[in-house]
Design a protein that fits this description.
470 residues; mainly alpha; 19 helices; 76% helix; globular
Length: 470
């Protein structure tokens, strides 16, 4: 039973796994992964993503879980306890989820709107199957009042679940939502792959073609995009996994949990590509369409399927809605956990409701800017100046370039320096549970943390800097 002066704890390892997967499996898999893959050569992007998930994703996932459980703290206090000189890295990682949630709830609102319209479409009402998909999405972007309303509703729902705490809110939701999400994704994958003309989409994903590395984009651009996506998709360096690790029981096996989360998240990302690209190619759509790919391509596909399409459409948007909501919960919890740490340290009560409301208000302000900007369609002088200040095409990319583009790989790099060079072996005892469990991947983990991770992450940071700012 959670007490007012405690942050809470997961009741089961399955609940932890579903919550951690829920934080990882989200728009990063179903929205961001497919469109970034489409813009970076398909297989050429996928290959680098898989390599990065193995040599940086798994070691950092294991590190963050162990750091959280060892210290029983969120990112700021956890880094401070490991080495006070690295406290700044915890501060930076606590900033990340706030930046991400500043556009996440905007897209969560879009998804909620599409889910509502897909329900209406079952009864022959609404606009989802009666208008051009591109024009419909464009209309949503430019209707600020409507978009803000849907964004606010999604944010309020996130807040209500987080109110319930770790076991009473987050764990209960994710234990139901994540298995349901995977089941619905498999249904959509099967339907997409059986569409006439789906073959080129599968070829785009899996046919060995590395030409994108030598194209105008170049290797570093594709690598940086895959690296940023790996961090965004796995929720690494966002404080979330450290916070969830601090709620995990000491008896649980961290190695197997880290492997399951990394593999499960990567599998869902690949399945999302399999669900979307066969449909994109089957209907002659552009795979490099950008952030609107998910909304435009899938609506086009479902509209063409007649009555059956309305059912698949509802399943699909329900799937994306659950994924978005579970990740939004994780982002909000990362910031909340850090604030609760500071209150407990100061001898104050861990008032979750009060802190959640403050976090939600901050998130609403950031999302209002994203929503009102309309993915760069706004010609308002403020938004034009704001975008120009950061040299980005829209407000979404402002938040994204700072969080996913720079802070996530940079703080991940700093973590490898801390654990690989400054305090090597610091987490070994926690991972082996005081020597009662064999640290099976110790050799691979140490090699990646000390050598491979820093090299790859330095290249990713360099690529992100040149990609976003030339």
């Amino acid at each position: 039973m959670e007490q007012e002066n405690q942050k809470g704890q997961f009741n089961s390892n399955f609940g932890f796994l579903m919550a951690a997967l829920g934080s990882a499996v989200g728009l990063g898999n179903l929205w961001s992964f497919p469109y970034k893959m489409g813009m970076n050569g398909g297989f050429a992007f996928l290959l680098l993503y898989v390599i990065l998930a193995i040599v940086t994703g798994y070691p950092l996932m294991l590190s963050e879980m162990a750091l959280g459980r060892k210290t029983q703290k969120a990112a700021i206090e956890a880094y401070k306890e490991a080495d006070h000189r690295f406290t700044f890295n915890g501060v930076l990682q606590t900033i990340v989820p706030w930046l991400l949630i500043c556009f996440y709830c905007t897209f969560g609102g879009f998804i909620t709107k599409y889910l509502g319209d897909s329900i209406l479409a079952l009864f022959g009402k609404g606009v989802l199957n009666t208008a051009d998909a591109g024009a419909q999405f464009g209309g949503l972007l430019t209707n600020t009042g409507n978009s803000v309303a849907w964004m606010t509703g999604f944010l309020l729902l996130t807040m209500v679940i987080v109110f319930g705490g770790v076991s009473g809110g987050i764990e209960k939701f994710c234990k139901v939502a994540m298995p349901l999400l995977f089941f619905m994704l498999l249904i959509v994958v099967v339907r997409s792959c059986t569409l006439p003309g789906a073959g080129p989409g599968l070829k785009f994903l899996f046919s060995p073609d590395l030409s994108a590395w030598g194209s105008a984009k170049g290797f570093f651009s594709v690598l940086s995009s895959a690296g940023g996506q790996c961090f965004f998709s796995l929720s690494l360096s966002s404080g979330c996994i450290i916070a969830y690790g601090s709620y995990l029981d000491k008896k649980e096996n961290l190695e197997s949990n880290a492997a399951i989360i990394t593999f499960g998240d990567s599998l869902v990302a690949v399945l999302a590509g399999v669900a979307i690209f066969p449909a994109v190619f089957a209907f002659g759509l552009e795979p490099s369409a950008g952030p609107g790919l998910l909304f435009v391509s899938m609506t086009t596909v479902f509209t063409s399927m007649g009555t059956a399409g309305k059912i698949f459409q509802l399943l699909f948007w329900l799937l994306v809605f659950f994924a978005a909501l579970s990740s939004s919960i994780g982002m909000m919890e990362a910031g909340i956990s850090a604030i609760l740490d500071s209150r407990v340290k100061a001898g104050k009560s861990a008032n979750r409701v009060k802190v959640t409301v403050i976090m939600a208000i901050m998130a609403w302000v950031g999302n209002f800017l994203t929503t009102a900007d309309g993915l760069g369609t706004s010609q308002n002088a403020f938004f034009v100046a704001f975008r120009g200040l950061f040299r980005q095409p829209d407000v979404l990319d402002v938040w994204d370039c700072i969080a996913e583009g720079i802070l996530m790989p940079l703080t991940g790099l700093i973590m490898t320096i801390l654990l690989g060079w400054v305090v090597p072996g610091y987490l070994d005892d926690e991972i082996s549970n005081g020597g009662t469990r064999k640290f099976k991947s110790r050799g691979f983990y140490n090699f990646c943390i000390k050598w491979v991770g820093p090299i790859f992450l330095a290249m990713v940071v360099y690529g992100q800097l040149t990609s976003f700012w030339g």
